[in-house]
Amino acid sequence: MLTYDLKKAPGIPLYEALYRCIREDILSGALAPGEKLPSKRALAQNLEVSKITVEAAYDQLLAEGYIRSREKVGYFVEAVERRPRIQLPQPRAPARAIPEPLLDLTANGTGQFPFSVWSRLQRGVMLDYGRTLLQPLPNRGIPELRQAIGEHLLAFRGLRVDPQNILVGAGTDFLYNLLLQLLGRDLVYAVEEPGYDKIRKIYAAGGVSCVSAPMDSRGVIPSALGKAQVLHISPSHHFPTGLVTPLDRRRELLAWAGTDKWIIEDDYDSEFRFHARPMPAMASLDSRGRVIYMNTFSKSLAPSIRISYMVLPPELMARFQRDLGFYSCTVASFEQYTLARFLREGCFEKHINRMRRFYKNRRNTVIAMLEASPLAPRLEILEQDAGLHFLVRVQTRLSDQELTGRLADLGVRVKALSEYYHDSSADRHCLVVNYSGVQESQLEQALTLLWEALG
Hints:
- The chain is an alpha/beta fold.
- The chain has helices at 14-28, 40-47, 51-63, 115-129, 143-157, 172-183, 197-205, 247-257, 314-323, 333-344, 347-372, 400-410, 440-454; strands at residues 67-70, 74-77, 103-104, 166-169, 188-193, 209-216, 219-220, 230-233, 262-266, 291-296, 308-311, 379-382, 389-394, 412-413, 415-416, 430-434.
- The protein contains 13 helices and 16 strands.
- Strand 6 and strand 7 (219-220) form a beta hairpin.
- The longest helix has 26 residues, at 347-372.
């Protein structure tokens, strides 16, 4: 008779514990093929459990092919592939966790998220929509959100769009991959040099030919684009240099696109300009339908809110619906309705204005501390007017790798500008400082460590 101590498996149903015990005996060979199992009644009495418990365990074993049933005869073990008993290694002490840096100058801050407003809108959405939230979504996103995004783009980016041409997705990574399928993997894609290295990695992983788009002080150089057929650009606030592409260069790039090339305008981080309104989006100048506008709410709200969108020219939206319309929308309806209300009720505008003031004050404080430190004669601060980062040129004989390595050893995580170049590894003695997550109380100590690293 089978004997098991089912109390040794707390937290799982009794039938599940019994099923696991019998299955293990079958796989280990303790129960041989063809061997008859006890009747349900007999096993239940022996283990002091209900007959229903044994029946449920046997049913699961039957469904998975470990046993077979012969009517009015009983249950028999099936011949299954045996596996040797594995001696599990003794548990090791947990690996020593990598200590958090004293100061992380690469991370975005999240401390100013409008929790009270967001939760109020979520409650309203739940009450007003109820079970409607469980229904399938339009593949482009709910109409209410696309309409709200269209109104926002007109008011703040000078971009008049048809909401029917807006496509909502869970993060720009997803949208980049959609574009690869939509435009085609046989085209040559150009990305800014220097630039956000993740974009290049996504394109490379997508199997397309990816080249560098050289830049000067006015942005991407049209004459240097060579055989490129698609240009990925951030004209309103380039990362990491902070450069803003002027109007005449934008027109030159539109002329380069002509009628047979594409420009992907990535407007990431464009909301945070401190001394003037952001320039109108490049797409607002496009009369030929060659610019694909992209933006995200991950930077302006929180990294975990994975809601991004792109505005496709009518030709491309028609192609998307025809060739890729089988894709489902990747953002939950609950979040879409909440964001739509956040935009329509003016909450996003208020949030951005509040964040501009907050980040401008923090930026000024960080820069003032840098300028007042003993390091000031060896530092030059660049690009102070927009975005949540700036550049600091450092007078040092250390290589960029040596400098960032020494800082990392001392507890300061920061990246050098040279790390954003794909085709050049030359030292530029320039650090990219993301100040949005900086705690001012930590900065003074970090400056002391920088002085130590510079020697």
